[in-house]
Amino acid sequence: MSHAPDSGNRLQSSPDSPAISGRFPEAPRRTHAFWLGLLLFAVYLLSFSGRFHVMDEVAVFTVGHNLAAYGQPDINQLIWTNHWTPHPPGVWGADGQLYTKKAPGVSLLVAGLVWLARLGSGISAVFAGMLTGALSIAATASLLVIWLEDVGFSRRSALVTGLGYGLCTFALVYARMLWDLPVVGLLGLVMVWALHRSENRNRNTETAEGADSADFIRVSPPFLRHPRSIFQPNRGWLWLLLAGGSAALAVVFRYESLYLAGFGALYLLAVDFRRPLRAARPLTLFLAPLAPVALALLVYNQTRFGSLGDTGYSAEIAFHFSWFSLYGLSFSPGQGLFTTSPFLLLGLLGVRPLSRRLAPAYFWLIAGSVLVVWLFYSAWFAWGGVWNWGPRFLLTVLPLLMIFVAAALEEYADRFWLWPLAALLGLLSLAGNMAGMMTDFNAFFAAIDSNQDFVLNWQHFPPLGNWRVFQSGGPIDLAWAEGSLGSIQWHWVAALPATLLLLLAGVGLIYALRRPGRSGWLGVLVGLTLAFLLTGQAMRAYSRVEQARSDYKADVPLLSALNEQSRPGDELLITAPAYADFQELAARLMAYQSAPLPVLFWMEGGERGIHDDERAGVLSAAERSGRLWLLQRWHSSADELTPTLRWLEEERYLSWQQQIGASGLLSLYVNEPMPTTTIPARVGFVGGLTLESFAIPAGPVLAGAELSVRLGWQADGNAPPGPVTSFVHLLAESDLSQRVAESDRFLLDSQQPARSPLRPGASSSQGHLLALPAGLPPGRYVLVAGLYRSDTVERLRRKDASNDDFVYLTTIEVVAQ
After folding, report:
1. Which residues make beta-bridge pairs with 786?
2. Per-residue burial over 725-742, b = 16 or more CB atoms within 10 Å of its CB, e = otherwise
3. Backbone dihedral angles phi then psi of residue 98, each to the nearest 5 degrees
4. How many CB atoms lie within 10 A of CB 676?
5. Which of 200, 479, 566, 803 is placed for a possible disulfide with 50 were both Cys, Cβ 3.0 to 4.6 Å?
6. Torsion angle of the four alpha carbons 225, 227, 232, 233, in this order, in degrees rounded to the nearest 10
């Protein structure tokens, strides 16, 4: 039977304790932590989904994508979400753009991965960004092993705990999702680990300056052998800066993570509570990184919302603590920590051994952080996180919880029941969380009555419920497979890079454990290089699988048209009815546009459609763009013209238009290419249509340029039956039968007034662009306009004495280029 060390062996209590000696385990002997993290990352790559499961994921990815694509942190692709739920992911900014409420940290990581993806060809930017969770959780597992060994746990306990964190907790599910919470958990672990190292460096400087320092330098890789290396034992203040920097960065990912800085500061005060003046220097070093981070976040708030203190969450700050929610986060079937991850029950056995093993200040640094987060989110109005897998808010302290599991494994290592119990709980956790990955858990949530139902009703226990959905035909949720149970199509070639990485990491881990003295930094460098290459191949293979699907193929012509014809400075407006595939199209455009342009995507009509004042603000902001693309997604011929299209007709000139297969009608509207002069006309036509005014160029026009003309029309209540088209013709003055340029625009259909740019009893203006031939001879040309029946091509005559079927507008002077 093993016994907990007595008070003389507590962490930071005695310079003779192995856990606090100035000499940490040699660097090459720690490579097993790297290989374990790489092994977990390979597992996550094999279980990779590449799909968004929660709207918050789409929001933070969109910010990262837009930062990488054109340097703006908006989420205008998601305007359609603004009336879907009582608490949408976006908030309107002071500049008329939509911004996420989320802190920017994870989006900055996504931006880097998206940028890397665009360096290669054929890799989905969405897939690249979705690697954030896998990378952060795998890195956390590696650091967890290092930390546990640093504080005196055996290698076996550290490795089992690290594997348990990565495979036997709900972190397994979140490794394939895009959340800021795992990154906060990693940064919190870095802070706690760095504080431990800093304190031990400072307490053991004299010991470390002797033979231990020489040994450390001897076993370190060349780039760490510089005499001023931060890893030298007398550099504890740099570990303090690392701890403070991690705590400060955590706030960039979640604003409420400020508690980490508070607990770190309290810990430093507790260590030297008898000498508070001595604690001033380390406390200052620890808190120093918080100042620039806080300033940057204030500027970020001011840029988005015009207020230093407004994060976007102002309307959602609601707390009400209850024992019910505390139970819910702990043991409820849908959101309970221990029901989602039974492996963590071992941690209950480790509380007392850990309290005896660690110095009181360090123990309460860990336990206090866990308790504060647990209580804080128990009081949050959405304590369950709504639609998600398990208690996602507790991901921020999950790495710290694992030390309690390690303490149980260490304390009861020689008890006959421990390892069978650990294996049983681990298998239950693994099976339950794998059930959450077999198919998209949103199908399960949609099948039950309410969020409350799955949180508290054991009949709707999520692992069993999700497994039943999969058995009943739910599609498999893997990037390298498609279909449902009984008809799954496995793309084995696409899974090959991840499988090779898994084998590589497994061999590396075994070698590092069997020959720790010979598994050095060169092996780590080779492993990182191969991991980078194999991950890139996996992402490319998964992207090819997605591109072979019918829904993607349907939008290939749209992507091609935008990639080939869009220019820097263009913007794309997308309108769609309520039944459109909003999330799918938004993700597809972000994933595969080779020349990304700002996208503004919203729903027209219905209770959840964009409001008039919101549309006005968006279109006002879009006026800065010289060229606006409009995609009318899945609008039918029976739908009335959207207010967006009417605005474009009034304010812009239609330059190009084409029906792009099943994607929708794609149009390009531009500003007037040259200054114009508006002239009143008041010319009536048969059928109750009147040309009220026209705007024409104020000077000569270059051959090969576009000639802009805007006609202002009014219709009385007796419009002619059938469709009517307006035209503008440019004729040679020397031969009026010679038409050198023309533009025809549909104007009115009295039988379908909702589809008409000009409605009976109303007035509107319509722009015409005439493309002049590049070789058009210089000279004078006559500009005329008129109307004709679209079905018969019969021109409508004027009602005045002239009886003409056109209106003379002006004579244009064309000059050579």
Report:
1. 727
2. bbbbbbbbeeeeeeebbe
3. -95, 130
4. 16
5. 479
6. 140
> Could you give the dihedral angle defined by the CA atoms of residues 171, 128, 573 and 626, in that order, rounded to the nearest 10 degrees?
140
**φ and ψ at residue 121, rounded to 5 degrees:** -110, 140
- Distance CA(340)–CA(336), nearest Å, equals 6
Instruction: Give the three-state DSSP class for 124.
Output: coil
Three-class SS of residue 548?
coil
Residue pair 258/251 in contact by the 8 Å Cβ criterion? yes
In a shared domain, residues 164 and 236: yes
Same domain membership, residue 44 and residue 112: no
Tokens representing 467 are: 């497994």
- Rounded to whole angstroms, the Cα distance separating 439 from 428 reads 18
Take residue 707 and report the two structure tokens written for it: 């000639």
Number of domains in the chain: 3
What's the pLDDT band for 453 if we cut at 50, 70, 90? low
Q: Which of 345, 367, 372, 342 is nearest to 356 (CA)?
A: 367
pLDDT score of 422 more than 90: yes
Whole-angstrom Cα distance, residue 633 to residue 77? 14
Name the nearest CA neighbour of 651 among 680, 622, 690.
622
Please state the rounded mean pLDDT for residues 342-361: 95
For residue 242, report the phi and psi dihedrals to the nearest 5 degrees.
-65, -45
Q: Is the dihedral of CA 502, 504, 507, 510 positive or negative?
A: negative
Angle between helices 360-379 and 398-411 (to 10 degrees): 130
Region of 583 (left: φ > 0; alpha: ψ -120 to 50; beta: rest) is alpha
217 part of a folded domain: yes
Answer whether residue 574 is part of any domain: yes
Q: Where does the pLDDT of residue 519 fall: very low under 50, low under 70, confident under 90, or very high at 90 and above?
A: low
> 638 and 694 share a domain?
no
> For position 518, what pLDDT does the model report?
66
The answer to whether residue 683 scores a pLDDT higher than 60 is yes
455, 333 in Cβ contact below 8 A?
yes
- Mean pLDDT for 22-39 is 72
Q: Please state, as a whole number, how many other Cβ atoms lie within 10 Å of the Cβ of residue 319.
A: 11
Evaluate whether residue 522 is within a structural domain: no
Query: Where a domain ends, among 440, 463, 482?
Result: 482
Q: How far apart are the first and last CA of the chain?
A: 95
CA dihedral 517, 519, 520, 521 (to 10 degrees): -160
| Contact by Cβ (8 Å): 1, 192 | no
* Residue 124 lies inside a defined structural domain of this protein: no
Q: Where are the beta strands (DSSP E) in 637-789?
A: 653-660, 664-670, 676-685, 689-697, 701-702, 706-715, 723-732, 735-749, 763-771, 779-789
Element (H, E) at 408: helix 398-411
Annotate 357-388 with b (16+ C-beta within 10 A) or e (fewer): bbbebbbbbbbbbbebbbebbbebeebbbbbb
99 and 79 in contact (C-beta within 8 Å)? no
Between the alpha carbon of residue 651 and those of residues 134, 210, 626, 643, 764, the distances in Å are 47, 78, 12, 12, 10
Q: State which H helix or E strand residue 489 sits in.
A: strand 489-490
**pLDDT band at 361, cuts 50/70/90?**
very high
Query: Among 558, 620, 636, 626, which residue's Cα sits nearest to residue 594?
Result: 558
- Provide the residue range defining the domain that includes 591: 62-119+549-671
Whether 412 and 265 map to the same domain: the answer is: yes
Token pair for residue 594?
């080779």
Our CA angle for 501, 503, 504, nearest 5°, is: 60
Does residue 717 sit in helix, strand or coil?
A: coil
Six-digit token string for 615: 């549309």
Question: 103 pLDDT exceeds 60?
Answer: yes
Question: Which amino acid, 780?
Answer: R
